[in-house]
Amino acid sequence: LAVFAVVNIGLGLRSANAIIGLTDWAKGLDLLALLGVFTFWLLAFVRHEDGRPAGRGHLAVSVVSVLA
């Protein structure tokens, strides 16, 4: 999610906002961040309730996709 903050700072620049601000790219980035946070929240909830890790493969894919 650190990349998300850096991209939003970049969108604050007039030149970048003039090009990207008129597209759905910024809205898509917001949605991607929301879904990534929801996935990690859900995995943490399942682990808390069940007491064992829920799908190590899914966790690894989630981490890589959010950081990529």
Number of helices: 4
The quaternary organization reads as: single chain
How does the helix and strand content classify structurally? mainly alpha
Identify low-pLDDT runs. none
Beta content comes to under 5%
Please give the largest β-sheet.
none
Shape, per Cα inertia axes: elongated
Span of the ends, CA to CA: 10 Å
Number of domains: 1
| Fraction of residues in H or I helices | over 70%
Q: Calculate the mean pLDDT score and round it.
A: 74
- Element order, helices and strands? HHHH
* β-strand number: 0
The whole-angstrom Rg is 15 Å
Can you characterise this structure?
The protein has one domain. The chain has 68 residues and is an all-alpha fold. It starts with a helix and ends with a helix. The chain has four helices and no strands. Helix 3 packs antiparallel against helix 4 (56-67). The chain is elongated and about 50 Å long.
Secondary-structure map:
Blueprint: H1 2-11, H2 14-20, H3 25-50, H4 56-67
Helix pairs in contact: 3-4
Summarize the structure.
This protein has helices at 2-11, 14-20, 25-50, 56-67.
Fill in the keyword field for this structure.
4 helices; 81% helix; mainly alpha; 68 residues
